[in-house]
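Quick bug: Aminoglycoside phosphotransferase domain-containing protein output formatted oddly.
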Amino acid sequence: MSITVEIEDDGAVDYEWAINQDANILERLKYLPARNELYNSLWTKRKTICSLIRHQLGLDHRDICNVASPREWIQGSFNVCIPVEVQSNHLHQKYLLRCCLPHKLAETSYPGTMDEKLRCEMVMLENEGIPRTMGTTDTYPSAELYVTDMLTFYDNCLLSNPNAVFDDEDCREKMAVKTLLRALSHRFIRRETRNGPFILQLTDLHASNVFVDDEWNLVCLVDLEWICALPSEMLAVPCWLTGHGVDELEGELLEEFEEMRLEFMRFFEEEEQELVSRHSLSLANIMDETWTSKGVWFWHCIKSLHAMTSLARAHICPQFSTRLTSVAEILSKFWCVDSHRMVEKKVADLQRYEEDLRHCFDRDNAN
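Here's what came back:
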């Protein structure tokens, strides 16, 4: 029987599972104790929770307010919802009190993150110890500056995460891709809109955050706190419409997505024509242009660290009649001075990480 440890969201996992994850599992092992501590703290403050809810609903202190036990609480990726039942002379209703999970939002490293979020993937990476590049008060006047800081943030991910690479070849490819994206950014940033207007976009929009009725009419969206103004070129048809990740869209899966994309765009154009806009941009035209120029893959790289190398290999390098493996060694030399030493360091980081991870499993088993 393999040794397992308990990890938040994934339950009991063994070493073989943990060692094959891209994420820093050493950091994620801290989540469950932090969650238990938070739950205990909230449970001891249930009288305060009731007072807060009575105040919000305009109720009297004599009205009944019951907080559900922690086993009934509903936890998401970044929040926990606490069911509360309220009874008064004119009201008998159940409510949800939504609380942020500080241990998922880098609150310890960067106090105030819970109040001013940016993009969910960035917060997740910051929560694993990646140095912050974008402050919560930073505002970008141009798309170029935003792209530059995003790529710098991804540089920090490679430098700081001990589990950032699989081996020396993978390290060179990741260094090369970041160099390549910087070199090609001018091709995919539209000159006409590089200084705005920037478009409000939902960066945590996925199927579980979309609610529809029995006839599939949209009735509700949740997790709106991740909305931010981004370059218009970043607006794209959601890849999850066909049930696949962006890094899976190749061959037949890409053809399937293209059919869905065309159908989506037909409805998108109809909706856009009926709306009164404060700007003269046609978002449908920009989305079609970005797809046709294959700039959509560049912007997906800017959105997703984990898909970046796969997208560069499958969609960006072929545009220039080359393969990533053919240029990785040369391009990686331009990512930093003494690049060969960086490769050696990252491979050594990985070896120490694997040893530390093994120690965690052995220690938990001994306990």
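Actually, after a second look the formatting is fine. The longest strand covers residues 79-87. Closing.
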